[in-house]
Amino acid sequence: MSSSDPTQHTALITGANSGLGKAIAMDLARRGMTLVMVCRSLSRGEQARWEIRAETGNEDIYLITGDLTEQADVRRVAAQFKRDFKALHLLINNAGSAFPERRLTGDGVEKALAINHVAPFLLTQLLLPRLQSSAPARIINVGTRFNTAMDLDDLNWEKRRYRMMQAYGQSKLGMLHTTFALARQLEGTGVTVNCVFPGVFMSNLGGTDGAQNAFWRAVARWLGWAIPPAERAAQGVIHHATAPESAALNGQYLSRKGPIKAPAQARDPAMNQRVVQATEALIAPP
């Protein structure tokens, strides 16, 4: 984080009960941070919390449950955090998923877009005052790497044939757009925001139907290399979330080794703002 004592830091990470999120949470707990895990399932969240506490010896591990595809739950998670914790030094928007067919949330938003983009956008906005009052603070959005563009005229896939990985890629591109827009807003505040691509790794993205794992196994066979575990992929996120040399980075698209080139659409500041406005239009009033 910064040069101050990291044991005084409070971190919140979404999707923390398995895969990449759990690996990141385990590392932050080892560093002595007060860690708030946001998980959809109470039972899986409690199991992960128990395992992290047992392995790290850190007792300051807390759980907030919520289905981040639903905006009411995002608001409830933020409200519970602000009620129970007075500071926030690190926000990691990690939770994400992909779906084999088009589904809508209760808010009428395509589900991949809801969890991968709208939820982190809304959660960040709700927690931004707490981050600013705790500065220096960092926001890390866990991204992916697709050379694609968002169709702002069909965010809910009403006109196009739904394709799981294309919908996933566009939702993650939305996160990248709003990362860049927010970074300009935060310049000089002591709060930074960056998007980190952890690399390809084996995960449970897509749920129990195994669609994502089947996809990446096919890619691995084609390219001829093994897919690394989440623990290895987590190292890039952890580095940019905690390393002193990353403290000054703001509005960057990063891998473990440093900045990477964003898709052309995301490099357009005017388009960044259009995506912000389109995202705000998808958010229901509280």
**Whole-number total of structural domains:** 1
Would you tell me the structural class of the helices and strands? Answer: alpha/beta
The strands making up the biggest β-sheet line up spatially as 3-2-1-4-5-6-7-8
CATH C-level label: Alpha Beta
CATH homologous group name: NAD(P)-binding Rossmann-like Domain
- What's the CATH topology label? Rossmann fold
Strand content: 5-15%
Instruction: Tally the helices.
Output: 8
Q: What integer is the average pLDDT?
A: 90
The helix content is 40-55%
* Shape annotation: globular
Distance between the termini: 33 Å
Largest sheet: 8 strands, mixed
SSE series:
EHEHEHEHEHEHHEEH
Stretches where pLDDT is under 50 for at least 5 consecutive residues are 206-212
